[in-house]
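INTERNAL AUDIT FORM
Audit reference: QA-55
Scope: verify that the stored structure record matches its stored sequence.
Auditor: D.O.
Record contents follow.
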Amino acid sequence: MLLGTRIRSRRRQLGLTLKTVGESSRLSVPYLSQVERNQANPTVTSLASIARALGVSLNFFVPDEGPHAVVSRSGEGHDLHIRELPYRVRSLAGRGPHLQLEPLLINVEPQFTSEFTSHLGEEFLYVLTGQLSLKVGEESFLLQAGDSAQHPSTTPHAWGNPGDSVTRLLWVGTPKLF
């Protein structure tokens, strides 16, 4: 896939306009349009600005000749310890540099509620056990075991565990966080 096509595809995946990417990258809309139509070749500095605006690394735009599959075996994942988060997170991802999805197994403690946040990317949640309250924009949902939700991460969102036992969920998002 050509560079401009990859850039356009990622921008559209995120639901961003050329103007938004232009403001974030500090590049002009006409120039970005030319890049997306493969009529201009960006410098490394411009490409780095575009990558930041689209929430990806420069490697996202470079064709990878390495392996196309990364397998993680049971027990090989690693726990992520983040002091600011009152829940346990286990990475289920392989360490392939070309991978964009971040699958996490998350245990949310009872009565926890996050602050609203928004960022580039997309999120998918699947509740394995317990219940999860999810707020996306003005909408509120109470998800039970077996329920799932998907939303753009650019929409302000928050979630929590209103129950009295740990909620376990599979979270998959882009771009990779860890």
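Auditor finding: record pair retrieved intact. Strands lie at 78-80, 87-91, 102-108, 122-129, 131-136, 139-144, 148-152, 157-160, 167-174.
Action required: none
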